[in-house]
Amino acid sequence: MPCEQLRKWGSCQVSELPESMPLGKVRQAALECFAANGFHGTSIRQIAGAAGLSVPGMYHYYTSKHEILDSLCEVAMETLLTASRTAAERPDTPVLERFDSLIRVMVLFHARFSAIAFVTLSEIRSLQGEARVRHIAARNEQQALLNRLIEEGCAEGVFGTAHPRHAARAITAACLGVSRWFRPEGQNTPEELAEIYVDICRAAAGAA
Amino acid sequence: MPCEQLRKWGSCQVSELPESMPLGKVRQAALECFAANGFHGTSIRQIAGAAGLSVPGMYHYYTSKHEILDSLCEVAMETLLTASRTAAERPDTPVLERFDSLIRVMVLFHARFSAIAFVTLSEIRSLQGEARVRHIAARNEQQALLNRLIEEGCAEGVFGTAHPRHAARAITAACLGVSRWFRPEGQNTPEELAEIYVDICRAAAGAA
DNA sequence: TAGTACCGAGCGATTGATCGGTCGGTACCG
DNA sequence: CGGTACCGACCGATCAATCGCTCGGTACTA
């Protein structure tokens, strides 16, 4: 992949996925605590301390611990889904190109925002009531985008996998898995990693 | 894949991966609670109740809540690693066959024992001290098995991926991801799923 | 009898959240 | 202009409930 082409795609990603996700000091503190200890393993006092506030000071901003988690999960899924829709549903664009774009969004998101991606995934079971329902619906929508692309690609002979649905799921899991291990100081930048994953995921879907 | 051949491989798996994992009533109860609520989101009273014991009755068998988790994670990783080593290090066996075997073990393990696999993965951050160190070492060993197979396969021209390490990681994540969604009453048996994943993972690694 | 498998009651510590308050800033009024 | 009222952004102290775990005990079995 020549360097110029990488830069070209890089600029497309900037418009689909933000460079950063402003969380505010309470949510940022909570995110770090949740990533390290889990939602239930994190106390309100830990979050407040990490945010440089007292407990009641923190309750000025959020009415409950659960609201903090819900809020984090929401902004994460909103960010991911918005970018994913843009990538997957680009009009008059060949299916392979849309597939590549979606994979890039997914990998970039999980690398660039690995902490919130990891917490959002691992704390689904701590979400209660409507928050959980909303979250699962968002995940299902995300998965459906990839499902449709691979099925479309198969119908057009672009993808050769005999198992489009399973391949889609495996690809999703591979991209989600990035949030577990990615470190900014590691060997690859998020953008480099996204290109690597495009190759691997194309292969997994049976692209020629 | 003809049915007879599937059965042949099925019988190999029996010798590598057990049909069941006896946990005892305390660990079984804890596993169900941890899967639903997380380690920290599960109280001792919940576990004891689910096991049909009082709290002190439960403490007769395990000295702490953490010991229960550690014990679950240990039996899970031991089971997975034992079977994985057998599959990956079979002497005088072509690399592609060993790769297939390892993928089967990984998928079967995560499908057949999806609850304990899911808890073991999602509660790494709740493991303390030596238990965590041991666990991470086991995970690294597991990953190294697959890394070596793919690298060997690339050296022999069996795999064509330009990114052996990344492909290995993506494949691991895809197999681990099975524990998130697999349901026994779903469309595929664990054995069928294992074969499907062999196809997809071969493709991901760039097998011809 | 000793060992095993439990138990009810209780402990000190911690939890998520609240209460009553202060402080500094801004707006309004006479 | 000075005084008053109000607000947002916090706070120390506290609450009721729950937490992980223990203690002293009982019942059963070989």
Give a written overview of the molecule:
- 2 copies of one chain form a homodimer.
- Chain A has 208 residues and is an all-alpha fold.
- The first copy, chain A, has one domain: Tetracycline Repressor, domain 2, CATH 1.10.357.10.
- Chain A has 10 helices and no strands.
- In chain A, helix 2 packs across helix 3 and helix 5 runs antiparallel to helix 6.
- The longest helix of chain A is centred in the last third of the chain and has 27 residues.
- Chain A starts with a helix and ends with a helix.
- The interface between A and B is large, with 36 and 36 residues.
- Chain A binds a DNA duplex (30 and 30 nucleotides) through helix 4.
Characteristic key phrases:
10 helices, Tetracycline Repressor, domain 2, disordered N terminus, mainly alpha, DNA-binding, homodimer, 208 residues
Supply the number of structural domains of chain A.
Answer: 1
CATH top level label of chain A: Mainly Alpha
Radius of gyration of chain A: 18 Å
Helix % of chain A is: over 70%
Order of helices and strands of chain A: HHHHHHHHHH
Q: How would you summarize this macromolecular structure in one to three sentences?
A:
The structure is a homodimer of 208-residue chains. Chain A has 208 residues and is an all-alpha fold.
List the helices and strands and how they pair.
2 copies of one chain form a homodimer.
Chain A: H1 3-16, H2 24-37, H3 44-51, H4 55-59, H5 65-88, H6 95-112, H7 114-122, H8 129-155, H9 164-181, H10 190-204
Helix pairs in contact in A: 2-3, 2-5, 2-7, 5-6, 5-7, 5-8, 6-7, 6-8, 6-9, 6-10, 7-9, 8-9
Chain A binds a DNA duplex (30 and 30 nucleotides) through helix 4.
